C-alpha cells in the first residue's frame, strides 16, 4: 500500500487535472491563504485490514487537495467522518488535516478519481486513467467484505472494478440507490448511499439518521449478519 500511495502521489497523467490542482494550490481560498496546499493526487486512507471500503468520487479542491488526505477538510468529510465515529469506525468525529490524530478501524476510504477536477466533474479519460489505481487499492485489502459507494459515480466504478475482477456481478447490473444492497458472490456485498455533498446534506436529501442506517447495514454485512 505504501508503494501504491507513492505512485499515486507522483502521477501526472492528466494534463487538465495537473494544471487545475496546482493552480488551486497557488491561488488558494482566502480562508486558507496560510496553508501549504498538497496539490497532488490523493491516495486512499484507513485500516489496511479493513473489511469495508468506502468509495467516493474525487478530492475536493480546497479539501483533500489542500490537506493531502481523502475527504479531509471539507463539508462532505465532516459528514462522513462524524458518521464513521458514531458507527465505531473512527476514533474521533472530525478530520481537519493529515496529522490530526484520526484513525480508522476496519474501514478504508478512497476516491475513484485521485485528483481534484474542475467543477468536481472528471472526464471519462481522467476517470479511466485513475481506474488502475482503484483496482490496486482494492486488491491490497485482503479482508474486504463490503464496498460502500457514495453516489452513482462511485457506484458505477465499484461495479466495474468488481466485474473486471471476475466477481459474479448480476445482469442486469444493479442500479444505484440510497440503501441499495447487493450480494456479489458469497463473500462481498455492494452498498449504495447518497454522497454527503452539501447539495444533498443542505437540502435534507441525506440526513444523519440516513447515514447512520447505512453504516449499521455495513456493520451487519461485514460481521456476517
Name its key features.
225 residues, alpha/beta, Uracil-DNA Glycosylase, subunit E, six-stranded mixed β-sheet, 6 strands, globular
Write the layout of secondary structure elements.
Elements: H1 2-9, H2 15-27, E1 45-46, E2 52-56, H3 64-67, H4 75-86, E3 107-111, H5 124-139, E4 146-150, H6 151-164, E5 181-183, E6 189-193, H7 198-201, H8 208-222
Parallel strand pairs: 2-3, 2-4, 4-6
Antiparallel strand pairs: 1-3, 5-6
Explain what you see:
This protein is α/β, with parallel strands linked by helices. The protein has one domain (2-222): 3-Layer(aba) Sandwich (Uracil-DNA Glycosylase, subunit E), CATH 3.40.470. The protein contains eight helices and six strands. Strands 1-3-2-4-6-5 form a six-stranded mixed beta sheet, sandwiched between helices. A hairpin with a 5-residue loop joins strand 5 (181-183) and strand 6. The longest helix is centred in the middle third of the chain and has 16 residues, at 124-139.
Amino acid at each position: 500500500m505504501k508503494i501504491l500511495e507513492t505512485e499515486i502521489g507522483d502521477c501526472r497523467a492528466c494534463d487538465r487535472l495537473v494544471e487545475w490542482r496546482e493552480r488551486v494550490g497557488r491561488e488558494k481560498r482566502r480562508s486558507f491563504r496560510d496553508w501549504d496546499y498538497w496539490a497532488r493526487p490523493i491516495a486512499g486512507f484507513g485500516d489496511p485490514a479493513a473489511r469495508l471500503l468506502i468509495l467516493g468520487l474525487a478530492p475536493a479542491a480546497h479539501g483533500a487537495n489542500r490537506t493531502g488526505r481523502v475527504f479531509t477538510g471539507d463539508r462532505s468529510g465532516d459528514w462522513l467522518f462524524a458518521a464513521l465515529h458514531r458507527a465505531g469506525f473512527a476514533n474521533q468525529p472530525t478530520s481537519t488535516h493529515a496529522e490530526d490524530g484520526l484513525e480508522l478501524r476496519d474501514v478504508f476510504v478512497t476516491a475513484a478519481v485521485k485528483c481534484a477536477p474542475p467543477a468536481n466533474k472528471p472526464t471519462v479519460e481522467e476517470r479511466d486513467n485513475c481506474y488502475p489505481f482503484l483496482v490496486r487499492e482494492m486488491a491490497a485489502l485482503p479482508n474486504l467484505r463490503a464496498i460502500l459507494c457514495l453516489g452513482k459515480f462511485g457506484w458505477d466504478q465499484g461495479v466495474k472494478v468488481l466485474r473486471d475482477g471476475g466477481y459474479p456481478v448480476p445482469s442486469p447490473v444493479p442500479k444505484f440507490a440510497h440503501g441499495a444492497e447487493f450480494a456479489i458472490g458469497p463473500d462481498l456485498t455492494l452498498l449504495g448511499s447518497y454522497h454527503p455533498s452539501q447539495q444533498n446534506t443542505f437540502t435534507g436529501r441525506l440526513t444523519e439518521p440516513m447515514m447512520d442506517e447505512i453504516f449499521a447495514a455495513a456493520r451487519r454485512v461485514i460481521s456476517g449478519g
